[in-house]
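Workshop exercise sheet. Pairs work together: one partner reads the sequence aloud, the other fills in the structure field after running the prediction. Swap roles for the next sheet.
Pair: D.N. / O.F.
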Amino acid sequence: MERAAALRSGCLLAALACCWQPGATAQPIPVRHVEGTLHGFLSLRAQDGRVVAVGDLAQVARGDRVTAHLVFHFRDGSVDDDTTVFSERGSFRLITDHHIQQGPTFPQPMDLTIDVPHGQVTSRSKGKDGKDEVRSDQMSLPPDLANGLVSLVAKNLPPQTPEVKVHLLVATPRPRLVTLAISPRGEQEFTLAGSPRKAMHFEIKIELGGVAGVVAPVLGKQPPDLHLWIVGGDAPTFLREQGPFFQDGPIWTMELASPDWPAAPPSAGN
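Structure field:
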């Protein structure tokens, strides 16, 4: 289920970022824990506890290539749909990422495709005349591009790593690269069916360089931090994530979800 967080983190950070910080060094993301095939369920809750969307993650691994499809269906009919393909031979490498946000929940619909091997970024939108508009840009994309892979970076950090920085591609509206700083913030206690456990808390910041980095906090435009919780050990697992899904959006919490079963009928003879 950490794949769900990876997809979601990359998507919402892409929606929040607005400026490029030049000069960051690109480093591949080492694989310490390989991904596999799974199907998971998630819920998305508002700050008052309301469930605003339910999600399905279907992930398939073939050789060293993994395809993960995460889709959230909102109560108002909106959809957040993201498909990420990446390789994990020695290091995580993004191959393609296709992210769609559409419906009443999202003030600015989005349809963004990243094709890393071909260095192509394609965005689709509706023009003022209602017709589809397609924009394609050729870019030199770094090996540490983390769209759809953010929580995997956190999950694969060596225990004593103070911070790691990776790149993220955003459309604002022209595609550009931003730098993410992912930092562990210590352990936090939680309970599982009354049993005490601990999770590692990660904080993810978007670093706005140059004039934008100075002016943004003054103007109230500094993107909010994202918070992520992962259980460590030999098999690290995603638990929850908090942050907005789009620029100026509300803070939502994404968590693992369990099925609700109807009450079992009385057994014969009772």
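Discussion prompt: The two ends are 40 Å apart (CA to CA). What would you look at next?
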